[in-house]
Specification:
Number of domains: 1
Organism: Tessaracoccus oleiagri
Shape: globular
Protein name: Proteasome subunit beta
EC number: 3.4.25.1
Structural class: alpha+beta
Radius of gyration: 22 Å
Number of helices: 7
CATH architecture: 4-Layer Sandwich
Distance between the termini: 78 Å
CATH superfamily: Aminohydrolase, N-terminal nucleophile (Ntn) domain
CATH class: Alpha Beta
GO molecular function: threonine-type endopeptidase activity
Helix content: 25-40%
CATH topology: Glutamine Phosphoribosylpyrophosphate, subunit 1, domain 1
GO biological process, one term: proteasomal protein catabolic process
């Protein structure tokens, strides 16, 4: 067979006249399918309140149509003033969280001062951009970043796209497979001037609604006692709610839903 420099022999061989067929057999191998990889985290919600911002995340991780884990944690303290929630490929997401935590700590040690809240949000976007090749192979991670901005003296929150683009949310936010359902509940119930307890109740209501329609969201698992992780950031710093306190709110919500299956028409309960 005659050969030409720079062209594999198969490109000059006889056969199908279809270029699409040629690409299928000789072209670049296909990437990893979008559902490849390990367990995927699901729904994260956040909302502002009178003194800061609250984030909550359900505990379920899925692999396709299979529930992989019932007690995955998806909400973490990034530092003493900010919180990060994760959805997407669970293993990669947790590594991103660890890297972000070390990044903030390293900056503080080297520079002798903390990054501004805006700087933290930008740095998280840069880490996501560095992760883009893996995201294009199906190992996508989407964070929700929130915390207390000392400069603005207010709670703030950002969502991101896989390319690292960041978008500030001014009232509430949701991401993950159940985000559309949770966001609908937040639109109806959220009051930015409410207190912390009321806002936590609203977030748990939104997770209940998400679990009602999204099989990948666990909602309020009273049977196993696995409660959503709830964390708040305010001028006093980041605090994780005790699981027993979360359960008490969850039990009130489930009791109220027994009386009104569709949930509250207005207000937290």
């Amino acid at each position: 067979m005659e050969t030409h420099p720079g062209f594999p022999a198969n490109f000059l061989a006889g056969g199908s006249a279809s270029f699409a067929e040629l690409l299928r057999t000789e072209g670049t191998p296909p990437g990893v399918p979008a559902d490849a990889g390990g367990p995927h985290g699901t729904t994260i919600v956040a909302a502002s309140y009178a003194d800061g911002v609250v984030i909550s995340g359900d505990r379920r991780a899925t692999m396709g149509n299979v529930i992989a884990l019932h007690d995955v944690r998806k909400v973490f303290a990034a530092d003493e003033e900010s919180i990060i929630g994760i959805a997407g490929s669970a293993g990669v997401a947790k590594e991103l969280v660890k890297l972000f935590q070390v990044e903030l700590e390293h900056f503080e040690k080297v520079e002798g001062t903390r990054l501004s809240f805006e700087g933290k949000a930008n740095r998280l976007g840069a880490l996501l951009r560095a992760h883009l090749p893996s995201a294009m192979q199906g190992l996508t991670v989407l964070p929700l970043f929130a915390g207390w901005d000392r400069t603005a003296a207010a709670g703030r929150m950002f969502t991101y796209d896989p390319t690292g683009g960041r978008y500030e949310e001014h009232r509430h936010a949701a991401l993950g497979s159940g985000a559309a359902y949770a966001r609908s509940a937040l639109k109806k119930l959220h009051d930015p001037d409410a207190d912390e307890l009321t806002t936590v109740t609203v977030l748990l209501q939104s997770l209940f609604d998400a679990a009602d329609d999204d099989a990948a969201t666990s909602g309020l698992d009273l049977t196993r006692g696995v409660m959503p992780v709830v964390m708040r950031a305010s001028a006093d710093g980041v605090v994780r709610w005790d699981p027993d306190r979360v359960r008490a709110v969850a039990e009130d919500i489930v009791a109220a839903r027994a009386r009104r299956h569709g949930g509250p028409k207005g207000g937290a309960l």
